[in-house]
From TrEMBL:
Limits of the DUF6596 domain: 182-277
Protein name per Swiss-Prot or TrEMBL: RNA polymerase subunit sigma-24
One Pfam family named in its UniProt record: Sigma70_r4_2
Family note: Belongs to the sigma-70 factor family. ECF subfamily.
Amino acid sequence: MSSKATAEAVAAAAADSYARIVATLIRVTGDWTLAEDCAQEALAQAMERWPRDGVPGNPGGWLMTVARNRATDVLRRVTVERRKLRDLAVLTLSDPGPEVAPGEVVDDRLRLVFTCCHPALSLEARVALTLRTICGVPTGDIARAFLVTESTMTRRLTRAKAKISDARIPYRVPTGPALAERLPGVLAVLYLLFTRGYDADGEPAFAEEAIRLARLLDRLMPGQPDVAGLLALFLLQHSRRDARRDGAGNLRTLDKQDRSRWDHAAIDEGLRVLKTAPGAGPYTLQARIAACHATAATAEATDWPAIAAWYDELAARQPSPVIELNRAVAHGYAYGPAAGLDLLAAARAGGALDRYPLAVAVEADLVARAGEPERAAGLFREAAARSDNGPERRALLHRAEEVSAGVPGGAPPGRP
């Protein structure tokens, strides 16, 4: 087995199982550092042994076993935690982690999400800890996202884990008023997890994990509109996963996607869940927008006036530069490019979108539809130059070529 194939197999197994392994070991040992170290040790052993022995039939179970054995060795050496050793011993060789039993809606990863999102931690610490522990994002990547050095982020993560230990923050899903208090932070983290999987260069397993956790949360809190709204949003967005790229891996915008390849079972489920989400919370409003796209038979049949109205309400309830940008797109398609350009100018007035490449792409799209192809092509190239996302950059350059060649159409810039 080649080193490249091994690396791909280990990466796939890590994406599927890393969070489960870490969460299980934290539940059993209560030691965050030990859990992460053992999970990393298992991945390192996979890189060493799989080229020689082949990829096991159950990679996640193999990693869980190695990590569990490593944790057992560590605890045995220091002759502590006899109870934890007994708990570790009951994990069977074939068990990659506790499955959710019928009627049981809480699993280790959900407990871990609620622990990472404890209000005793700063918002930055919650996000960083979740990215590291749930998503398995390398510390260096998190540091770059927060514009700090890797050593600084390492210290922050260490302090966050120490605070959880020192404050004896319970490793469980809260109940009663505490559950409602912690819910917004948890939903924000799940949204972050899904986004990391849905982005153009993201890891799809993260999106699927976010959907799984949202389903668990929906079962834990039936009738909670924000939870249902978030789950519906995930399902409707993720239904397009198989149609978002062409055979070469390039992104396909909404108007160019083969809608027969959309996951219509997921769309049906998303629409059913959305019916259980009354009110107008931010996630529910975004789900209603996604539903407008998901139920349009063709791109031309999209109900843009309805989408524009939902964005008006979303911007009123949760104003942000990106929402205002999307609102400009919607109004541009509903009422003409001049309407969109007016709202775009207002959205950019505060300067928050100055470094956002999709703001330039939106202007390019609206300018193209207003009948200025050469200026639009230049703006698409400018947006591509500002983007550090490979698939997104290629899609913007391709659109610049199309506009220069007089190819009509296009689609709202952003996530296809």
